[in-house]
Write a structure and sequence with these properties.
The structure holds two protein chains of two kinds. By secondary structure, chain A is α+β, with helices and mostly antiparallel strands. Chain A has one domain: Mth169, Chain: A. Chain A is built from two helices and three strands, in the order βαβαβ. In chain A, strands 2-1-3 form a three-stranded antiparallel beta sheet, covered by helices on one side. The longest helix of chain A is centred in the last third of the chain and has 16 residues. The radius of gyration of chain A is 18 Å and the shape is elongated. In chain B, strands 2-1-3-4-11-10-9-6-7 form a nine-stranded mixed beta sheet, with helices on both faces. Chain B is built from five helices and eleven strands. At the A-B interface, α1 of A face loops of B.
């Protein structure tokens, strides 16, 4: 038995365009909203959400692993940054 | 001996035949390099062609850069071997860190498939040595993510070091500083969004891709000569 991997965590990675990087998709959505009657909307930014489940010793270890993935694969640091949210997987044995 | 040009084939590449055809038409030898093989097979130059390598999943080039052939291309480039990335190949080379910057979605959010006018900004690269500065070339573009983006420091360095090799006349996609193609510090790795292999005959609407590909073959020939002499 491997007690150090006893926990399962749910990870959400939000990948976003870095501030200052033009977002043509966001701009197009923003221009479209008033046509549907949604006025007063600004700063629309489009990103993507990546979810996965990971086995890790603890929450900090799960977060560190996810951050490493972001740095090496999930984002292109030239134009993107990311926010990692980790929580204990619901329904998993404590 | 004709210079040997290796054209990388990823799952999802779709311009590898055109590049081979163009190279052979100009007197070079062309062969495919399978992405799963960790070697460039002793070729004199490498072209990473256009297409949708690995489906462009996650981001164009994000997965392709982990293909075994990429480590061999890194080593080949580090040894001074000529490497050119066209369209998706440019995206792959930026993701792999062989070239600076990134290719964002086009400013107008449209897939662009049209003839573009380019201006040669530097002839000091393996793709532009047979051109003249200021020369205008008609070369088609065919991309959704061709909007060249980098941080201000990188842009300043590219300009100061004369590493912008091609610029658009009438910027079609929002690229910073009208950049259509850049090279690395050693000037042996070049990436560009336009497709010179599709501009090799008046029958195709332009043969302005010829001087670009001739430059590459000259660099490949020099590399072949150096190998023979060594």
């Amino acid at each position: 038995m491997c007690e150090s991997w006893a926990m399962r965590y749910s990870v959400q990675v939000e990948v976003r365009l870095r501030p200052g990087i033009a977002d043509p998709q966001g701009a197009t959505i923003e221009r479209s909203l008033p046509h549907l009657g949604f006025d007063g909307v600004s700063e629309v930014r489009v990103g993507k959400m990546i979810r996965f489940v990971i086995d890790a010793a603890d929450e900090a270890a799960a977060a560190a692993e996810a951050e490493d993935m972001c740095r090496r694969f999930l984002t292109n640091p030239v134009i993107e940054d990311s926010e990692v949210t980790v929580s204990v997987l619901e329904g998993a044995p404590a | 001996m004709s210079p040997r040009v290796g054209v990388v084939l990823f799952p999802g590449s779709n311009c590898e035949m055109d590049v081979q055809e163009a190279v052979r038409g100009l007197g070079g030898d062309a062969e495919l390099l399978w992405h799963g093989d960790a070697t460039v097979g002793g070729v004199d130059a490498v072209v990473v062609p256009g297409g949708f390598a690995h489906g462009d999943y996650l981001r164009p080039g994000a997965i392709a850069r982990f293909s075994p052939v990429m480590a061999a291309i890194q080593a080949f480039a580090a040894d001074g071997g000529p490497v050119v990335g066209i369209c998706n190949g440019f995206q792959v080379l930026t993701e792999a860190g062989l070239l600076p910057g990134a290719l964002q979605k086009n400013r107008g959010l449209k897939f662009l498939c049209t003839m573009a006018t380019l201006e040669v900004a530097s002839t000091d690269s393996v793709l532009t040595s047979a051109c003249t500065v200021g020369q205008q070339l008609q070369v088609p573009i065919n991309h959704f993510e061709g909007n060249y983006t980098c941080d201000p420091e990188t842009l300043a360095a590219l300009r100061a070091e004369d590493r912008v090799v091609l610029r658009y006349v009438g910027n079609p996609n929002g690229s910073m500083d009208d950049i259509a193609g850049v090279c690395n510090e050693s000037r042996n790795v070049v990436g560009l969004m336009p497709h010179p292999e599709r501009a090799i005959s008046p029958l195709l609407g332009s043969d302005d891709g010829v001087p670009l590909l001739r430059s590459l073959l000259a660099a490949a020939g020099a590399a072949a000569g150096a190998t023979v002499g060594a």
